[in-house]
Amino acid sequence: MRTKELADIAGISVRTLHYYDTIGLLSPEIDRENGYRNYSDQDVSTLQQILFFRQLNFKLTQIKDILNSPKYHQTEALLEQKDIILKEQTRLNNILKLIDKTIQAERGEITMTNEEKFSGVDFSHNPYEQEAREKWGDEKVEQANQNLKKMGTKEAEREFDVIYTKLADVRHLDPESDAAQQEIGKWYDFLNKVGEYTPEMFKNLGEMYTADERFTKNIDKYGDGLAEFMKEAMTVYYE
């Protein structure tokens, strides 16, 4: 199966498959005559596993370690994924019950205490923060949180919004242009107000913007193609 064909049936981009190959997560055989990637049935099954793990918020590095582990067994992995999903299903059902109960209270059908408005649901879970802790360590995340508190949440949100709006305005330009580099530099400066980012970390973060569909979706709310533009501009900035 060729790259475009697999991308179409899996519902992901060709760029994502190329990225998985680049990082050694899913590397198909290369046709020596024409240089095309040829995906076997096993590669397709492996991609299914990768996408299952991605839906469960596993990092790509974690998935790679799991798939390369000598203890890895596909059937066991599927059973573990099923167990995780069932637990998540229970959590979401609890949220739905709480929402339904709150709707009844808003309509005056029942009365809820303040404590009941938060009962049965853990609102403290933040998958993005957990991912950051695993990638860069607790110390950097705690430092970033403290710096954000010093700045003030509203102030940080306003600055973030201004930076992304201006980046969206120049996304049609060449990422190497002075205007594009000036705006992406403001993003680098902002990140270093709330944490410590080396140019290499900045570049790697940009790659995540297109490799991780969650980032792409959120960033492109400011303008179609912004995530791709930022990735390229951040790479130029690093170089």
From TrEMBL:
It holds the Pfam family TipAS. It comes from the Bacteria. Gene3D superfamilies: 1.10.1660.10, Antibiotic binding domain of TipA-like multidrug resistance regulators. SMART domains: HTH_MERR. Keywords: Activator, DNA-binding, Transcription, Transcription regulation. Residues 1-69 form the HTH merR-type domain. The keyword Transcription applies. Signal peptide: none annotated. Transmembrane segments: none annotated. InterPro entries: DNA-bd_dom_put_sf, MerR-type_HTH_dom, MerR_fam, TipA-like_antibiotic-bd, TipAS_dom. GO terms for molecular function: DNA binding; DNA-binding transcription factor activity. PROSITE patterns: HTH_MERR_2. PANTHER family: HTH-TYPE TRANSCRIPTIONAL ACTIVATOR MTA (PTHR30204:SF90), REDOX-CYCLING DRUG-SENSING TRANSCRIPTIONAL ACTIVATOR SOXR (PTHR30204). This is DNA-binding transcriptional regulator, MerR family.
